[in-house]
Design a protein that fits this description.
Its cofactor is Zn(2+). Keywords: ATP-binding, Chloroplast, Fatty acid biosynthesis, Fatty acid metabolism, Lipid biosynthesis, Lipid metabolism, Metal-binding, Nucleotide-binding, Plastid, Transferase, Zinc, Zinc-finger. It catalyses: N(6)-carboxybiotinyl-L-lysyl-[protein] + acetyl-CoA = N(6)-biotinyl-L-lysyl-[protein] + malonyl-CoA. This is Acetyl-coenzyme A carboxylase carboxyl transferase subunit beta, chloroplastic. It is found in: Plastid, Chloroplast stroma. The protein is an alpha/beta fold and 370 residues long. It has three domains: 61 residues, no CATH class; 29 residues, no CATH class; 222 residues, 2-enoyl-CoA Hydratase, Chain A, domain 1 (Alpha-Beta Complex), CATH 3.90.226.10. 41% of the residues lie in helices and 14% in strands. The chain has 13 helices and ten strands. Helix 7 links the parallel strand 5 and strand 6. Helix 7 packs parallel to helix 8. It binds zinc ion (ZN).
């Protein structure tokens, strides 16, 4: 059997992923692989043990009497497998629930290797997926939320929630906005992040999106917004709802007056005020496969109307049948689809050496003056 070093080397040759010069990284991967092997070993041991000594099925009638014993013997984690929990990501598909190895998941664009389900993705990974390397310029990173209505919650004070989510995600708010190039075409892009207070839209998210739209309007840039949000942010009350009107009026100037091109991408989940404003206002609306897209959640509808919603009725594929959006695009071809759409709408790669707005005779005039 090949040693871990040999396997690492082989893996590096086939994928070019691990830089063996980086000793720390190599040691980390080695530790991960050893832990995986230990986990598999422990699992095999427990299976072997279970085959050799099948558990005695106790009679249901005396289950109450030996409750204490059964709690001791049914240790949920006898092999200490929880120790390796951080290495794996559970598939969000309820019919799959397979474990994906975390280190390889990013390379697979957070798509489950067993069933092809599109798992949630961080905003930074999405930017890396769509924007050319070294062309990303973030905007308004210094804006952060205050507590405008002094939201009263003993369990989760709003300010603490913001601070802890900032620490965990490394973001200042639930959206990253900026400019970058998509296959060489300059674009203004905003990407929401569900990990930050459920991707909810408060006044900072609304302000960042509005500024992004105004920037794109002045620079005549195409606009892309990736939505992944639980809706308006309840901790900011009606100030969150006002963002819907603010963003929509900025989009009216961008789309109707300037005749520019806006693509909205609906990732899982896109709900509430986000769907009801800029999510549905795209000139082209793209949805990710198996995304949860809804205005009101399943439970709210069922409790209000006293009906049972059919399974999957608020998912991409069913909504596409009803004509809610234009395209379902999986993550792998997303960048090339976007670039085709932009070219189709007369946005082309930008050549910095030859500025587009300066015709040849203008350059001659300029040199003559000097
Ligand atoms: Zn799966």
């Amino acid at each position: 059997m090949a040693s871990i070093d040999e396997r690492l080397e082989r893996y590096r040759e086939s994928t070019g992923t691990y830089l063996l010069k980086d000793d720390d990284f190599k040691a980390e991967i080695k530790r991960d692989m050893e832990a995986v092997m230990a986990g598999i070993g422990a699992r095999l041991d427990s299976i072997e043990e279970a085959i050799l000594n099948p558990p005695v099925v106790s009679d249901s009638s005396d289950s109450d009497s030996d409750l204490d014993d059964s709690e001791e013997s049914n240790d949920p984690d006898p092999q200490g497998t929880k120790k390796f929990k951080h290495l794996w990501v559970l598939c969000e598909n309820e019919t799959c629930e397979s474990l994906n190895y975390k280190s390889l998941l990013k390379e697979r664009l957070n798509i489950c290797e067993f069933c092809g389900y599109h798992l949630k993705m961080s905003s930074s990974d999405r930017i890396e997926l769509s924007i050319d390397p070294d062309t990303w310029h973030p905007m308004d990173e210094d804006l952060f939320a205050l507590d405008p209505i002094e939201w009263h919650s003993k369990k989760h004070p709003y300010k603490d929630r913001i601070a802890s989510d900032q620490r965990e995600t490394g973001l200042t708010e639930a959206i990253q906005t900026g400019r970058g190039k998509l296959n060489g075409i300059p674009v203004a892009i905003g990407v929401m992040d569900f990990r930050f207070v459920g991707g909810s839209m408060g006044s900072v998210v609304g302000e960042k999106i509005t500024r992004l739209i105004e920037y794109a309007t002045h620079r005549l840039l195409p606009l892309i917004i990736v939505c992944a949000s639980g809706g308006a942010r309840m901790q900011e009350g009606s100030l969150s709802l006002m963002q819907m009107a603010k963003i929509s009026s900025a989009l009216y100037e961008y789309q109707s007056n300037k005749k520019l091109f806006y693509v909205s991408i609906l990732a899982s989940p896109t709900t509430g005020g986000v769907l009801a404003s800029f999510g549905m206002l795209g000139d082209i609306i793209i949805a990710e496969p198996n995304a949860y897209i809804a205005f009101a959640g399943k439970r709210v509808i069922e409790q209000t109307l006293n009906i049972i919603l059919p399974e999957g009725s608020q998912e991409t594929e069913n909504l596409f049948e009803k004509g809610l959006f234009d395209l379902i695009v999986p993550r792998k071809p997303l960048k090339s689809v976007l670039s085709e759409l932009l070219k189709f709408h007369a946005f082309f790669p930008w050549n910095e050496k030859r500025p587009l707005l300066l015709p040849l005779n203008a350059t001659l005039e300029h040199t003559k003056c000097n």
